[in-house]
Amino acid sequence: xxxxxxxxxxxxLGLREPADAAARAVELVExxxxxxxxxxxxxxxxxxxxxxxxxxxxxxxxxxxxxWIMYDRDPELLARARAEMPAHAADGAPVTxxxxxxxxxxxxxxDLDGATLITASALLDMLTAEEIERIVSACAAxxxxxxxxxxxxxxxxxxxxxxxxxxxxxxxxxxxxxxVDGHRLLGPDAAAATxxxxxxxxxxxxxxxxxxxxxxxxxxxxxxxxxxxxxxxREQRPDLEAPTAAYARRRxxxxxxxxxxxxxxHHDLLANCQ
Length: 274
What we know:
- There is one protein chain.
- The protein is an alpha/beta fold.
- 41% of the residues lie in helices and 23% in strands.
- Helix 5 packs across helix 7 (190-200), helix 6 (164-176) packs across helix 8 (219-236) and helix 8 (219-236) runs antiparallel to helix 9.
- It is globular and about 60 Å long.
């Protein structure tokens, strides 16, 4: 990434962080807490850390001393994640951080050796089937719980509805499944593919919904999300540019004034923690 693109991405992550935190299936934390009973240090490997939103959300929910190992390909994002991690766990125990500049699609079980918990957020839909298979294989080999949150599943609900909503959704989903440098991304199929991959390794997975629910209080995020959503749909289908011009203006006006409610559906997965 360039400096400008990194900062733009970090700004997007900051804008969406409260929605991610509110959406994550907090009930999946309790099985992890039960698994961590014993007072030993929890070693968390966080894949595709970004600015560290998963750590900021989860570390204060878990008891006992924690050591987070954060992976990303961008050093500036990792530096922010390290600087902004909470210092204490749910019971006041210390939280320490280590960062690793790495391509997480190339991780092996050896890289994850010693992990007590593996986490990721808003990651799976950006991967290919082969990349998911490699990551699942590495996670399954550790025998520790793996919590994967905020994976889009291709379902969006806008209120009030509009006849063009479905066509935009279909075009956006096709864009999420596009081929990049000869590799086909899974997009909204990624959560199901991950579930199947863990199944092939004999690992049970809990699945819970984790929808963004955006209303008047999230008008800025709704506007930013909508522009990206329509933009990706038009990139996939340039023929939509003219038919959606008035639609986009109308929807953006609704979002800006708090008159548009959006539900973006995701799934959270918790593997190997039953």
